[in-house]
Write the structure tokens for this entry.
Amino acid sequence: MIGVSLLPFGREAARHAEAAAGEMIATRDLSIAYGRSVVVDRLSIEARTGEVVCVMGRNGAGKTTLLKALIGVLPAYGGAIRLDGREVTKKPSHARARAGMGYVPQGRGIFPYLSVLENLQMGLEPVGRDTGQLEEVFGLFPVLKQMAGRTAGVLSGGQQQQLAIGRALMGRPKLLLLDEPTEGIQPNIVEEIENVIGSLRGKMTILLAEQFLGFALANADHCYVLERGTVTLAGKPSELDTGRLQEALAV
Ligand SMILES: Nc1ncnc2c1ncn2[C@@H]1O[C@H](COP(=O)(O)OP(=O)(O)OP(=O)(O)O)[C@@H](O)[C@H]1O
Ligand SMILES: [Mg+2]
């Protein structure tokens, strides 16, 4: 594993070095805190290259906190994060974006006073310029092409979500972090968004935070269920104990 920093993953990771060869993102004993309140506690998860991995958990389980720490908006309180073989735990979020992480925040985080096109162009920052991404995004989300000159704030919730995903794709991510992309969206658009996520399968690694089962179970290669910031259930969708799963996700 020449050139791959294993510290502070340490000996345990060295033992897993072979397994790490196909790994896109991994956390080891990652803890995240707000002040003195630890809400993600020694979490170890991974997504292998090309996989769709789903992090499930009910409200407040720690999904958003985890994704924010992965992209570097929140600092790690303990543990480590490795992206495509490199440790990024202390790297600022723009460096992680340049290293190939794309992030679609919960609630979309679009710029409502900028045009659709300007929002998409903001997504070019990690790669510097457009080498065809804009047309690819317009191909995935034709409505964004139709609305390119409009102010983003006038788009519907579903259109804004498409814009947020499109913006992340402008940076040509190798890992796409999606935080509840279908939350608060009309059912017919949910399907459209799910189809697009499905069509990205294999082109990049996808880490998806979800509260609901259907899409996750149908699309994920691997699921982690979070309860109060720790993984209580993990495995392929077909291997998960449905009783435990219902229990973990019930409100
Ligand atoms: N800025 C903050 N300051 C303090 N505590 C926070 C903050 N943001 C979140 N928390 C707490 O951290 C825990 C995890 O929240 P988080 O938003 O990560 O959950 P989530 O799984 O994304 O939930 P949801 O499904 O509602 O989006 C919750 O107990 C929440 O109250
Ligand atoms: Mg959340």
